[in-house]
Write a structure and sequence with these properties.
Elements: H1 8-55, H2 61-80, H3 92-111, H4 123-132, H5 135-159, H6 167-221, E1 225-229, E2 235-238, H7 240-246, H8 266-278, E3 283-289, E4 295-304, E5 316-322, H9 323-348, H10 350-366, H11 370-401, E6 410-413, H12 415-428, E7 434-437, E8 443-446, H13 449-465, E9 474-481, E10 489-497, H14 503-507, H15 524-534, E11 538-548, E12 551-563
């Protein structure tokens, strides 16, 4: 995501645009309401005057014609014109809305002969000018109405009999004009007040929208999984990390996911239900199952929301942490300490150890007593053991520093594996114990040949240490597998006959400095895993059975999954 999309300016601009759009929609609704009211009033006047015309003994067609013309004019503006604010002066826009109303109601007052007083209708155009226009336009409209009322009062005084009281006409005009000014002022004040309230509401809405977007960006960028669920187990919201952890589709609507209906997520559903039942936060370590993909240990922490109103629904915010990530952070911290220690070991132990080994070799040349020679051999053996421990520690530091190269190193499989196994056989004087079952077709594999040698030597040494010397008790086999929507990979298996591992040992099998024997450094399998991960490969353990001299024997298998560069099929040497 570009950096400008995360800036507050972009957030404010986006939210402000939506606020202005909402304000424009509100004005459009108000404008359409006034225009629809004008049409409705015109239809009512037309029907009224038509009825009066039909029932009157002295019919007057002018009010009916004026009403029909007014209906046509109001309907035309309602259909054709676009919603817009009235200007501050009496222009054409004012004429077709407020002006038409003023002239229509004034004409009805002049041409009617039924004694109906139409002057109260003049409040409608004044009110419309106050709401849809400015205060100046509203006062101007009220002044125009007042002038027309006084003109009509003057016309009535000229036509009135000499003995009539003409002051009544002018007093009525003055009262009606004052009422129009009052309507203009009050409506203007109310309109200004509503505009101020709306502006503050838009400002608050803008601030809330910006805060919501910031919170959404923060939650989406969190490495920890976060989801929100209601008391029925319905997921209301979830960030991408939660979708990845639960194995759901990020494009799927959150409201389509119900935790109570997923059998693999019952442990998570129980924690959420306990939060609602006990009305307090929960903290638990659970296991989430993924069907055929196994299970995953997850740390769950819940927090209930505090509703601000009585009718607001209470929700549960769930924070999920993959235990593997927690263990990886602990392992990284441990590795950093071991890296510093390995440098000290290299300088402080290796040089004196080499001096001891050389001095012992020189001393052995001068010894002839068998007991002395046995003691010298013990010194040499323990010096070699210490040298191996130092080498493992140095390899640990190198494995921790290994990074994926820009140009991946490759090797030809299975030729490289065959060569490494042959070298190991010669070095350890092993023949019948090791049985190879490798494919004949060549495949290019992404892995450093020297690193693969180190991994295989370590696995074969472990296999020989924990198995008997029966022929075929150590087997190396391989085949290829097709990964879904990924490149093919080669599975290389090192199997050895032996007893099953204890669960406690299997759980910490690939951790540094962990060993079931006191004489082992506990770094071999950890180094193998680090070297595999640096090349995009993986190593795993499983218990399985193999054919050994015609009998099915149980044993321990370490399986390497190596990325293949090409897609040449490899005949399966043996089922892994």
């Amino acid at each position: 995501m570009p950096s400008q999309l995360l800036s507050p300016a972009w957030l404010a601009t986006s939210a402000s645009g939506r606020s202005h759009l909402a304000s424009a929609q509100e004005f459009d609704r108000l404008w359409l309401g006034f225009m629809t009211g004008r049409v409705t009033l015109g239809v009512a006047l037309a029907l009224l005057h038509t009825g009066i015309y039909l029932m009157s003994t002295a019919p007057n067609q002018w009010p009916t014609l004026i009403s029909v013309v007014y209906v046509a004019a109001a309907l035309l503006v309602r259909i054709v014109a676009q919603p817009q604010h009235l200007n501050t002066r009496l222009d054409g826009q004012w004429v077709f809305t407020v002006g038409v109303d003023v002239m229509t109601f004034a004409a009805l007052q002049v041409f009617q002969n039924t004694g109906i007083n139409y002057t109260p209708l003049l409040a409608l155009p004044v009110l419309m000018a106050s709401i849809l226009g400015s205060a100046r336009l509203a006062m101007s409209s009220a002044a125009a109405v007042t002038l027309l009322l006084f003109a009509h009062a003057g016309w009535q005084s000229l036509l009135a009999p000499p003995e009539s009281d003409i002051t009544t006409f002018f007093l009525q005009a003055a009262l009606t004009g004052a009422a129009c000014f009052a309507v203009s002022f009050i409506a203007g004040q109310l309109s200004s007040r509503m505009a101020s309230v709306e502006q503050r509401a838009q400002h608050n809405q803008l601030a809330a929208e910006v805060q919501r977007q910031v919170n959404a960006l923060v939650i989406e960028s969190l490495a920890d999984a976060v989801l929100v669920a209601d008391e029925h187990g319905q997921v209301r919201s979830a960030n991408p990390a939660a979708h990845r952890l639960l194995g759901t589709n990020p494009t799927q609507q959150d409201l389509e996911v119900n935790l109570n209906q997923q059998t693999d997520w019952q442990s998570l559903s129980r924690v959420i239900n306990a939060s609602f039942k006990q009305q307090q936060a929960q903290l638990a370590n659970i296991t989430i199952h993924y069907g055929t993909q196994g299970a995953r240990q997850v740390r769950v922490q819940t927090q209930l929301t505090n509703p601000q109103t009585l009718y607001a629904q209470r929700l549960c915010v769930v924070f999920l942490q993959d235990q593997r990530e927690i263990q990886a952070r602990i392992r990284s911290e441990k590795l950093a300490g071991m890296g510093r220690m390995s440098a000290a070991v290299a300088h402080e132990i290796r040089n004196p150890l080499s001096a001891i080994a050389q001095a012992n070799a020189l001393l052995a040349e001068e010894l002839h007593d068998p007991s002395h020679l046995r003691l010298s051999d013990m010194v040499a053996q323990n010096a070699q053991r210490l040298e191996k421990i130092v080498r493992d520690v140095l390899h640990l530091a190198q494995a921790g520093a290994v990074q994926s190269p820009e140009i991946p190193q490759t090797l030809v499989f299975p030729e490289t594996v065959l060569r490494v196994c042959s070298d190991w056989q010669r070095q350890n004087q092993v023949e019948a114990e090791l049985q190879l079952c490798l494919p004949t077709d060549s495949v290019v594999v992404t892995f450093d040949p020297e690193h693969l040698r180190r991994v295989l030597f370590n696995l074969l040494d472990n296999a020989r240490r924990y198995t008997d010397r029966e022929p075929g008790s150590i087997q190396v086999s391989a085949d290829t597998r097709e990964a879904q929507s990924e490149q093919p990979y080669v599975r290389l298996c090192v199997w050895s006959k032996g007893a099953a591992l204890e669960p406690a040992v299997e759980q910490h099998l690939f951790e540094p400095f962990f060993s079931s024997e006191s004489r082992s450094s506990g770094l071999g399998l950890y180094i193998c895993r680090e070297l595999c991960e640096s090349h995009g490969a993986s190593i795993s353990y499983e218990r399985c059975a193999r054919e050994v001299q015609g009998n099915r024997q149980g044993g321990n298998a370490f399986i390497l999954s190596l990325k293949a560069k090409n897609t040449v099929p490899i005949p399966a040497g043996q089922d892994i």
